């Protein structure tokens, strides 16, 4: 619901149109242009002055930009990412009209650090599977994720993973279904290597999301992941069940 900045009980007509336009922006990509003002005014059954005031609201919020003689340009906006036990990154963004992709950057066996060992319930220094994936939305780098698995029997199959949904791959190739059981979120500046992955300036703000995933009925976590997300591109929604 769009919240008015004015001390009135109900939004004005142009604020109602701004709220509807803001919702419809989810169906546009960065770089798209909105239809002509005359078309939008006819669509919403308002005069052009009201329509312009509604667009002005979106300009102030940073969702669109007026280009003289060209039109109203749609700018990059954060993608909504609900956090719950069944969250699926790709499916969620597809439903928002976006095009998510995922590619593998790294796949190795390595000794578990103290943090990874504690998360997975193994001894420090014991070998674990480490995969790193990069996720893009509409071609823009959004997050880089380090995935750690203690079950070494999965290594031959996980070496074959190259792109797409890693959890779908586990389900299809190994019959393994994982469920999010814990999420911790913190914020910090991006380091040089991280800024290259995410294609942002060094020290840009990023959100660090640490997650535990379990198989049904197992006390020991099957996966520990650390996701580094562009803070300007992801908006997390906590969903309570």
Structure described in brief:
This is Phosphonate metabolism transcriptional regulator PhnF. By secondary structure, the protein is an alpha+beta fold. Helices cover 28% and strands 34% of the residues.
What does it look like?
There is one protein chain. By secondary structure, this protein is of the alpha+beta class. It folds into two domains: 62 residues, Orthogonal Bundle (Arc Repressor Mutant, subunit A), CATH 1.10.10; 159 residues, 3-Layer(aba) Sandwich (Chorismate lyase), CATH 3.40.1410.10. Helix content is 28%, strand content 34%. The chain is built from eight helices and ten strands. The strands form three sheets. Strands 4-5-6-9-8-7 form a six-stranded antiparallel β-sheet. A hairpin with a 7-residue loop joins strand 8 and strand 9. Helix 1 crosses helix 3 and helix 2 crosses helix 3. The two termini are 22 Å apart.
How would you describe this structure in keywords?
transcription regulation; DNA binding; 2 domains; 241 residues; 28% helix; disordered N terminus; alpha+beta; Bact_HTH_transcr_reg; Phosphonate metabolism transcriptional regulator PhnF; Chorismate lyase
Radius of gyration, whole Å:
22 Å
What is the number of helices? 8
Shape: elongated
User: In the CATH hierarchy, what is the superfamily of the largest domain?
Assistant: Chorismate lyase-like
Q: State the major sheet.
A: 6 strands, antiparallel
CATH-level-2 architecture of the largest domain: 3-Layer(aba) Sandwich
Distance between the termini: 22 Å
Q: Give the tally of β-strands.
A: 10
Task: Describe the strand arrangement of the main beta sheet, using strand numbers.
Answer: 4-5-6-9-8-7
For the record, the count of structural domains works out to 2
CATH class label of the largest domain: Alpha Beta
Question: Percent helix among the residues?
Answer: 25-40%
Range of strand content: 25-35%
Low-pLDDT regions:
1-8
Oligomer: single chain
Structural class: alpha+beta
H and E order: HHHEEEHEHEEHHEHEEE
The CATH topology of the largest domain comes to Chorismate lyase
Average pLDDT confidence is: 88
Protein name: Phosphonate metabolism transcriptional regulator PhnF
Organism: Franconibacter pulveris
InterPro entries: Bact_HTH_transcr_reg, Chorismate_lyase_/UTRA_dom_sf, CP_lyase_PhnF, Tscrpt_reg_HTH_GntR, UTRA, WH-like_DNA-bd_sf, WH_DNA-bd_sf
Keywords: DNA-binding, Transcription, Transcription regulation
